[in-house]
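Let us practice reading a record.
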Amino acid sequence: MINKDTDNKLPIYKLTSKDKVLKYYDDWTKNAQFNQDMIEWEYTAPVNTVQLLDKYIHDKNIKILDAGCGSGLAGIELKKSGFTNIYGVDFSQSMLNLIPNNIYQTVELIDLNEPLKYDDNDFGAIICVGTFTYGHVKAHALDEFIRVTNKNGYICFTINEGIYTEYKFDKKINELSQNKSWEVLNLSKSSYIVNKDVEAWLCLVKKN
């Protein structure tokens, strides 16, 4: 198999500490540069993820957590698809500041590597796009996603191909399947940042 050297595709992929990542986002969001780069780089993950989730969820009023919502790109796609009850959280205030009005019911500053403040079974679905990547959120966060999702609720997320095995997402997905925490409905390679030749694993699961 050809090694794509994904580690070197973007400068942020070299950062490992939370403080360095936050500083990078503070600089990246100036003059809305982040959103412009996502357009130019053809960041397809939000569209792909929402389209997959939309195939399974027919109640447009379902309560959805956009975990790692960033500047709201996935939330915008959810809104376009008719979803109305969306809550956004992210660990970068500078990214949250870029979110357009009227996308989320609330937006909050939350580190997804820490236990979530929400009650058990609080959300009908969780979407997590572009957050499982270098120097960001680790695989253990999926345990909390399951906890705060309703029985028979859905969790739809991307995993940057470069960290899928390095951060042990492959093992975590298998573990949660083996212990009957969820049923995997989709796990396949998907376009992610097209013009940087980076793909992602796109996963949709249903909580048991």
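A brief commentary: The chain has one domain: 6-207.
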